[in-house]
Amino acid sequence: MLEALPDHPAIKAILAWNNPALTDAKFEFDELTLTVPREQIRAAAETLRQAGYNFFEDMTAVDWFPTTPRFQLSYHLLSHAFKERIRLRTLVDEADAAIDSITTIWPAANYYEREVFDLFGIHFDSHPDLRRIMMPDDWKGHPLRKDYPVEGYR
Amino acid sequence: MATAAETPEITSLGSQHMVLNMGPQHPATHGVLRLVVEIDGEIIVKVRPEIGYLHTGIEKTCEAKFYQQVIPMTDRINYLDPLSNNLCYCLAVEKLLGLDIPERAQWIRVLLTELSRLNSHLIWLGTHAMDIGALTVFLYTFREREEILRLFEAVAGQRMMTSYFRIGGLSMEPPLDYFDRVQAFIKTFPEKIDEYSNLLTGNPIFINRLKGVGYLSPEDAIALGVTGPPLRASGVDIDLRRDMPYSGYDKFNFDVPISHGCDTWARYEVRLIEMRESTKIIQQALDGMPGGPVKADAPKIVLPDREKMKTQMEALIHHFKIVTEGFAVPAGEVYQGMECGHGQMGYYVVSDGTAKPYRVHMRYPSFATLQALETMCKGRLIADLVAVIGSIDIVLGEIDR
Asked: Which stretches of chain B sit within 8 Å of chain A by CB?
């Protein structure tokens, strides 16, 4: 994969920054997905921002219950200069469902991280205001997890 | 001789900020938006949006439906721009399936999406002007909106919840005189925009309420995830229709209006020009409308025509299979972005190879844009808050989903 797209600015930037951090890269449906370890997410996001992916477009999680690691976090970054989008992906285990917040890089991530915290129960370290956003504050459970029934418990 | 009464010492009460609750039921919040506003007299110190009052768990519901059953739910997210929602979801699933959409279907999609954008902008203009106090404009814009809704009804049978686009094309060919009706509407529409402009652009009250209000620098706009007209009004030249074309937008000629005003007035100007550009796109779509089918040639995914279903055994089997079992979509994940009336919309669809989506996530512009509210209002008067909410054009359905 890396040999096929050696000139891609995102891959180049990641490799120049920290070669072993890029655990997987794939190009499917005309979309580039880069996987980095959970600990490196903030540094990887900052590297990509400096490489030209200046706009934080979207962030969400996917619950792959019952496999481990259970959660996948997908960050979609857009480059206004290259007119191109990439997906930054990382995996988070259920036992320690926590990851660094990237709100210091893009304040826009604030609501998105709160949403994932609310609906998936993933904790974001050093987030400025980590509260539930969609559900009431006293709600039990995290509705978008796969073991939460579609009809709810009530 | 009387001595002057001793003046009592006046002790300062100290300055204290007041917390004001705006909404969730407030006419200027365009839905069930609740703002907790900290004010110092009339000056805004802090704005904290509290959202979630309209949360219906659409993303969760999608996981329990077949792929084709998700389309009606997408309408209900942004109910002012229904066809853009349909289109974005269909494009995402079509990308997973690798479907080729016939040119005619693509052009009709562009035509209707632009009508839908006009619909969204007309409601914005009417309600925004109404918030400022110019009640009349609302009546004018809803006159044209009514005509657009009639056009939606003619193709989809529904005025607001259209669900007209299907995975693989359109649900059916538009009625015979449809393009003539659109042509008649488009012919007079530029004059109608002049009419709105006459009512507002020179209006001194309107100008004073908007100019210099709600300043948002381009750096802040990008950092806070603002997209669409507010981003372009801050001088950032990006429009996905032109820069990352989808559904055949690369075949159309149109300008992307930019303003460097960064304020509420700039957002007003940008949207007004955008309406004119949309009219141009619709005219081009009408002029160059290609012939051919409106559904992709994929019998296992696209429902057969009613007539074929009643005369051909194979079509009947396909119909039965699609309706009862859905269709399997290859495993993978796609993100489809597009430019809707409010900004950049995005659908992230994850498939595990079955007939039901494993995960559907929607990126809606208002959700991100709402985060910029505090930056725009800090240090301004409460009355400006109303103007700013109107100018970012939020829809609570898409914020809470």
From this structure: 51-52, 55, 57, 59-61, 63-64, 95-96, 222-225, 236, 238, 243-244, 332-335, 337, 344, 346, 348, 350, 358-359, 361, 363, 367-368, 370-371, 400-401
Quote the crossing angle between the two packed helices B135-156 and B178-200, to the nearest 10°: 170
Residues of A in contact with B64 (CB under 8 A): 150
CA distances from A6 to A15, A89, B330 (A): 10, 19, 28
Give the CATH superfamily of A2-101: NADH:ubiquinone oxidoreductase Nqo5 subunit (3.30.460.80)
Q: Record the pTM.
A: 0.89
Q: Which of residues 49-108 of A touch B (CB under 8 A)?
A: 54-58, 60, 62-63, 74, 76, 78, 80, 83-85, 87, 106-108
Domain coordinates of chain A in residue numbers? Answer: 2-101
**Over the stretch B40-79, which tens digit does the pLDDT of each residue have?**
888 888 898 888 888 888 999 999 999 999 999 998 888 8
Domain of residue B305: give its range.
48-400
Sheet strands (E) in B247-388: 332-339, 344-351, 359-363
Least Cα separation, residue A57 to chain B (angstroms): 7
Residue type, B145: R
Q: Domain total for chain B?
A: 1
Residue B5 lies in a domain: no
Confidence band of A62 (pLDDT split at 50, 70, 90): very high
